[in-house]
Structure formats: C-alpha cells, structure tokens
Amino acid sequence: MITLLTTPADRELVVTRTFDAPVRRVWEAWTRPEHVRAWYGTPGLTMSVCEIDLRPGGAWRWGQRTPDGQEIVFSGTYEELIPAERLVYSEHFEQMPDTAPVRVILSFDTTPTGGTALTSTSFWPTTETRDQALAAGMEAGVREQYDRLAGHLRRM
Length: 156
Hints:
Number of domains: 1
Order of helices and strands: EEHHEEEEEEHH
Distance between the termini: 18 Å
CATH architecture: 2-Layer Sandwich
Strand content: 35-45%
Structural class: alpha+beta
Shape: globular
CATH superfamily: START domain
CATH topology: Alpha-D-Glucose-1,6-Bisphosphate, Chain A, domain 4
CATH class: Alpha Beta
Helix content: 25-40%
Strand order of the largest sheet: 1-2-8-7-6-5-4-3
C-alpha cells in the first residue's frame, strides 16, 4: 500500500493510507498503548513512554530514546473522539517547547473491501514549520511508521 503525503493548503498536511484491516482493528492499534508500542517510532530507538488517556480533554504522550539517551517525545490533548471513526487531538514536539502545537484530525473510513482508509489531516501553526518538518525527513518517517503499523495489524 502507498502512503501519500500532500500539502493542499498553506498550513495543511494530509497523509492517506489504506490498510488491509477493519476499522475497529486500526482504531485499537492507534489508541491502545500495548499496540502503539509495537509499531510507533523508528527502528533502533527504544519506546520510552506511551501514555494514552483516551477521552476528550485527556492527554497522550509518546516518546522514544536514542542509543545516546536523547528523548524524542510528542504529546498533546484529545479534543474529540468518535470511536472507530474520528480522533481529533493536538500534537506538540516537546523538544521545541516554544512552538505552537499542530492540530490533527484522524478519519477512519471503511473501504469497499472491508479495509480501512486512514486520513490524517494536520494543521500547522505556520507554513514554515510544516515545511521544516517535511525537509527534516518527516515524509520518510511517516511512511516507515505506517508500514510498521500495517505489519502490526497483520499480527493482531
């Protein structure tokens, strides 16, 4: 499957991917710590934190540790959730505390074959911050993580 990243508007980034798994399974893989630990991040790094308080106003925090001990942590707050359909949350890169958070809308849609079309629409504070993230290798990282998620979904 192909993971597609597009920039349809100045501060917007849309990531789409179809998974050969039902919506409920993809939802569980995205919202339960025991599953997130299995697919999130980059090989060679250790998952150091995976906290999910899945409710409107609840916080989440996912992080990895590099071999030299550096922490790479993202966190945020859930704004809205409709189980197995929609998840809206803020996302903040903790190593850049002075930057505004990104707002993310995840949509989980059933495909005609019973799979899941996952669409992540993120709204960045500025076009420059979005473009800096893309220039820093975000696209390759997202593709790799979605491939890892696909593999985990097959094992679930």
